[in-house]
Model the fold of this input.
Amino acid sequence: MARARVADDGCWRLELEPLAASAEPAELRISAEPAAVNGSVTIQNVLVGEVWVCSGQSNMEWILRDTENAVVEIAGADYPEIRRFKVPHLSEFEEQDDCPGSWAVCSPETAASFTAVGYYFAKGIRRSKDIPVGLISSNWGGTPVESWSSLPALRAHADWADFEKRIAAVQETLADPENGDDVRESAAFAQTQEAWDVLADSEQAFARVGFDDSAWDTMLVPQLWEKVGLEVDGVVWFRTTIELPADWAGEDAVLNLGPVDDYDNTFWNGTRIGGVGPDTANSWQVPRQYTIAGELIKPGRNLLAVRVFNVMGAGGICGTPEGLALCRASGGAGLNLAGDWRYQVHLRRPLGEPLNMGWLPGGLYNAMIHPLISYGIRGVIWYQGESNADRALQYQTLFADMIRDWRSAWGQGDFPFYFVQLANFNEPQTEPGSGNFAELREAQTMALALPETGMAVIVDIGEAADIHPQNKRDVGERLAVIARNQIYGEPELVYSGPLYESQQAVNGRLQLKFTHAGTGITTAEIHSEGKYTVREPGKIAPSGFALGKPDGSWVWAQARIVGLDTIELWHDEVPAPSDVRYGWHDNPVCNVYNREGLPAVPFRTR
Done:
């Protein structure tokens, strides 16, 4: 039991003595004295464990449902000791003390919407430590690091003048008497699931069976509506009728709608059967599949209505014709739904890019991090950087400053802060070169100079054509290995791939020495994106190293492994090699690992 006194402003703070970790559900009772004042509140099913903040942009936000092997993983996700609190997308000019949200217990019914990286991280921890794990999922796709930094931290940065101008521009836009309200409304749509789920009164009839849509225009579906000249950012309703045989009646069905750009609310015979909104990362790419309960299926004419909200650019139900279908849940041939649908524009917002509050410097810290700092945490896992890839030099200081700032705000000392280095992306490298992602990875590596930090390298599991790799299992597990080594009692566990330490010239060749070689440096056979097999040393030569020539150009090095922690490089055109790069590209072809299966950290000496 603990007591606290309520301040004059009605706020109070209470700190409990440390409690032993326990997966046994307990009650937390909060009562006022005297009891007649406000009575008491009891919170049920409380566990005692370790809480981690999962933050960053879309690759941290990416949900389990949209990852590799999702169906099997979700079906077996019965882990009541893993919990998740989802912070909604919010951005503010001032620091907030609270935010909406609720805890969800991990189960096959809930796991699909968990942050995939956080989910696999929690599973990895529980393999080592039998403790409950709470995940606070506070992330927003496409956001830069300065949005997650506090304003005091940004004011101390050399580029504060630029950040200040950006803040002022947002304030000016919102204050505009002519379109400020429209901009604010579209920003609200993009930020809150609650706003998206509530249909305006004027729209309720559009989903109903008896509504007369004969005056509406027709459009061939699926396709992006801009292809037929519909220049609309906002809400467009679609309706179509479907004739079903009598033997379909009362049987569950599955609607495959395909991807919708950007969000949808979908109705069958007037009842909402599903929808995807702003809380789903990259919603425009997510195929919609909704189950229709048997009691909604009628013989003869049935109505399908879809409310599509397009934030910017092209919009619509935009999959393939063969992918737009209605099938019986029990199987068998389905009905193709491609064809002419009725449509009507309901809400237009100003064309062009909407106000992106997620990019407001300090905005996400104010609304999505500051409300959390009274909550005791074990540490942070972070996956972000793609949106700063063109400003790697600036990131070197912004990222480190943000880590120090968060630690200062929480007042818990140097809590663990583990982050993910950017995955390989874009066309694979064929010649020595450079790239924005390479430079951003270097900035991330530099943050390892801060105490209690760790970096998961995933330059081997990315996808050339997709900035969101589907393999999130390795990401979460590599983060978990760091935590298991650093704080969960497994000091013998190798938690990093080989990391460049030093070099020396030996008989016209360059020998590189690495830390974190584990039981020895080796190489891997790369089968395809995200698929690799570590081989015994000497079976495959190291690749991905480039040597600087006297004229300033670069050439691929020949390489071999020397001992447990050294790689030797040479090339006939570089008689006295000194400058070296490894994995130095957006999507490098490189294959050095330790025998524990962790990839080497990309680096450059010049």
